Amino acid sequence: MVSRELRHALSGVEVPVAVIDLEAFDANVTALAQRAQGLPIRVATKSLRTPAAIDRALAQQGYSGVFAYSLPEALVLHARGVRDILVGYPTVDRRSLTQMFAEAGAAQNITLMIDCPTHLDIIDSARKAAAAGGTEVAGSSAASSDVAASSDVAADIAAQTVRVCLDIDASYRLSEGVLGSRIHIGARRSPIRDSASAVDLAEHVIARPGADLVGLMSYEGQIAGTADAGATVRQVMVRAMQKRSKAELRVRRSGVIDAVRELTKLEFVNGGGTGSFESSAAEGTLTELAAGSGLFSPGLFDGYTHFHHEPAAYFATPVVRRPGPGWVTVFKGGFIASGVPGADRVPTIAWPQGLDYAGLEGAGEVQTPLTGPGTEDLRIGDLVWFRHAKAGELAEHFNEFLVVSGSQVIDTWSTYRGHGWAL
């Protein structure tokens, strides 16, 4: 339900528009910190994609460092002054890697994710390209001092140490000893799953000149990103799976961490997500958690039993047609979330109550027909409020969020799109 004050704040505002409820956002910042049970929270920027929102979270007690989703994003954030950046996914972007080596301080503040030696080979190739670029001097008659300076730059680049984190698979495999990977529940990310494979890759990193193994990361998406509320057979099975997965992961992840720590000192062990803070923190194996979606609390988070955050991010779009009794059509609205296509990937209709999508049309890119008793009082130009199913993806559709406190728009927060960043 969208409060009267929040709705009043958009009086006279040009729509469609994206909105942040500041009080709800701040409440979620506090709630996540409480749920983390003392572990620091690394802000997952993919789930926000709004610099002011990232900065606001980082300014609060209990938050430290960011979890970027690409190296270009990490470089943009570094240029803005953000430090302690963990890139959550391996990169094969040689241009951005070369830029990282060439940018002062970037390699010291950005940690790269890997799950195989090939990732290290690509990093080394980019380092060589960056060093070669540092020796180029424009013009055939360049002064000797310029040549010397360029040689020094090349030497500095070649000497840089890359900070590396190993991605450890945290998914659940039913009867793995018998069925192997045939029943795999969770994200298919890393091939590194057990102590032996983790030690093998860790030894490879340690032996590689210019690479420094500083951390481990494992994301239990089958717990953190899977709603468990409900009494259906499926939801009962989800809860049973999550219970078994937590017990299995506690043992396996602990073994991996202990084995790698016998080889080298780790700065951090990262894991968890908004939906698994309680179990991830209680496990006792992690030094930090990662979260971002919980700050916006999108529609997918309505289906969890053990926590409730305040909806903080919305988009509002106007009624542009009344095609017949019991029907209205709003402008836009087809902001479908990534993942397996299904009813849970469409935006949640937040206000007014009593609206539903058309069964044969759904949420449309240009127009979205809605039906139900909630259409009775809607007129051309009235607003319908929605929540995106996922958090950061909403920022891909708008240049800015209007920030509302009480019944007033008090600020605007530019999104990555508003800054012109395609990351």
Attribute tags:
single chain, 423 residues, alpha/beta, nine-stranded mixed sheet, eight-stranded parallel beta barrel, 19 strands, 34% helix
Globally, the shape reads: globular
**Strand content bin:** 15-25%
Question: Biggest sheet, in brief?
Answer: 9 strands, mixed
Note the gap between the termini. Answer: 33 Å
Mean pLDDT: 93
Q: Helix segment count?
A: 14
Structural class: alpha/beta
Low-confidence stretches: 135-141
Helix content: 25-40%
Provide the gyration radius in Å: 24 Å
How many strands?
19
Model description:
This protein has 423 residues and is an alpha/beta fold. Helices cover 34% and strands 22% of the residues. The chain contains 14 helices and 19 strands. It has helices at residues 4-8, 22-35, 51-58, 71-79, 94-102, 106-109, 117-134, 144-159, 176-179, 195-207, 221-224, 233-261, 277-283, 293-296; strands at residues 17-21, 41-44, 63-68, 85-87, 110-114, 162-167, 172-173, 184-185, 211-218, 268-271, 288-291, 313-324, 327-331, 348-351, 356-357, 367-371, 383-387, 400-405, 408-414. Strands 1, 12, 13, 14, 15, 16, 17, 18 and 19 form a nine-stranded mixed β-sheet that branches. The longest helix has 29 residues, at 233-261. It is globular and about 70 Å long. The two termini are 33 Å apart. The model is unreliable at 135-141 (pLDDT under 50).
